[in-house]
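Example record

One chain of 530 residues, shown exactly as stored in the release files.
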Amino acid sequence: MFVLGAIAAFPYLFPQLWPLGWVSAAPLFWAASEKKAAYRHGLAYFSGYYGLIYHWFIYLYPMDFAGFDRLQSILVIAVCWIGMTILQGPFFALVVPIYRRLRTGCDWADALSAASLWVIFEWLQTQTWMGVPWARLAVTQYKFLPALQSSSLLGSLFVSFQMALTGSLAAIALHRLNGDVPQPVGNGSKANEPLVKTPEKRKAALCALLATTVFSANLAYGGAALAMYDDSGAKSVVAAVIQGNIPSGEKWKDGSVYKTLEIYSELTLEACEKYSPEIVLWPETAINVSLRGMGGLCEEISNLAKSTDAVILVGAFDDVVSESADEILSYNAILAFYPDGTIGDKPYYKRHLVPFAEYLPMPWFFKTFLPMLADMNLFQNDLTPGDAPNLIETKYGKLGGLVCFDSIYGELARESVKDGANLIVLSTNDSWYRDSAAVYQHNGHAVLRAIETGRYVVRAANTGVSSIISPTGEVLVELGPLIKGVAVHEVKMLESRTPYSFVGDGWICACAFFIAGLAIAKKFKKAKTQ
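Predicted structure tokens for this chain:
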């Protein structure tokens, strides 16, 4: 099962293997047939699954940017890699024994319970600081857009639901074909030859047909949505993303901020001279100081915005005196510099901070038992998370912000659109992982956010991948990792809303009620037979 779990992770590393994602859950639900070993099989499967997906932690080496020597770097990377696998694998493995206990023998009910459990657990991965929905099943499809269009209806969890449903139906079909009831002699059969009963074959065929129908219906909807999409009547603007390609080790050196500003200013001037963009986006913490506290830096960027006649969105820190005036709160922010020389008074603040990098969860525990993880934080004090979408107002429309880790949580982009965002701007720093699978997977989440919200997504990354993505998930222009440059494309300021932007993930409640109903029905049935 460990090997099968690792194979199931292949589409995250090689997106061209997207078909594998639709049957990757089949071995997991097949394993539910063994009563005593169900959880053990699930644990082995998800150990291989998450272990391979999170292999890119090794690209953090060497961690000299955090002040670690080589041995410490190896230990911390091992803890992160194994820790993320342990954090998610044993938890998700609970799907298998729970599914086994809920099985009724009714194929459609069992398949629905498997799919419902899968998405409930994917949704639970968004909760608390331990929740990291990085390996959502739908991400495997980000290069195959017809499969993802139904995300606009009920979100990427709906795509995961359909994928888990096809996998569970495949597992049930195989169980039906694996029967060992002897058939009567005849039709060329040998006496006592263990064959599958004809009714079982029919049920297996029906399960295979249902799985094919789910897959085909999703693709048919996706193909129709792609063919019918039209935003030609919407207001258009030209957007540019700036990728300075400054590695983490260079970015955090003392005095690097002025060199960084020079690089981003030159690239911005180059983009504006060639393409005249109205909106220019810099990556997360492109300026890695509290920008509004540095008058000279602000003046230089304001002058740049004036000379280019563009709204320049800058990833930087922003320090704010708390309401009680007894402490200064530091935010990871996107600040807007306008062509008239003014600075937006309502920056976007990152809402979902990265544990151990931007703040330390459960400090008493980690400082006592895992001090090396506690020392990973790049800042002397924890950053403060934002608590609202804080739309950035421009004369072209409202911009909804996302910073790095924010982009793997669909609810945050949905809240921005719900508040009136016409365009999503996403600043990120993936330089820690260089050109590994992580930077492509992270960009895949941006594809999901574009389809879910029906908005163009403008994404700037320090060292890549930077991209501009259409509301159908098409990557219109892209800068690969470890490249210095600019990417420019026309985007639309949209007002129409997708069904997902209204209902969000609320439909997961229906899955939970279905599971609860099955559990109650089985309990009553068991009590009745006793």
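Notes: The first strand starts at residue 235 and ends at 243.
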